[in-house]
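Hello, quick one for you while I still have it in my head. My current little project is about how a certain protein chain folds up. You're getting the sequence in one-letter code plus the fold written as tokens. Would you mind checking whether the tokens look sensible for this chain? Here's the protein in full, and shout if anything looks odd to you:
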Amino acid sequence: MAEQTSTNDYSGWRWWPCFVGGLCGPLLGNWLNHWLPLYLAVGIAFLMMWMITGLIFRRNPPFAGYNVMRWMIGGALGAIVAATGAFLFPWR
């Protein structure tokens, strides 16, 4: 039988680092684009924001099964996907 969770104990505030990273990542990518090709700037910005968010989550994990290594591997794969997308579909 599945456990029932109430909506009262759920708080969206535990995900604030993801919001800040999603807001600052494109800004950092645009800033890095002055010196680097677009696909590298997007990949590096994505990875940096993902790692900073992961380090914040290391102090206050958002859920019980949080694993730093899985988070960093996911960030590396996400950076590769973001850089590939920027390479295939450049907007500049």
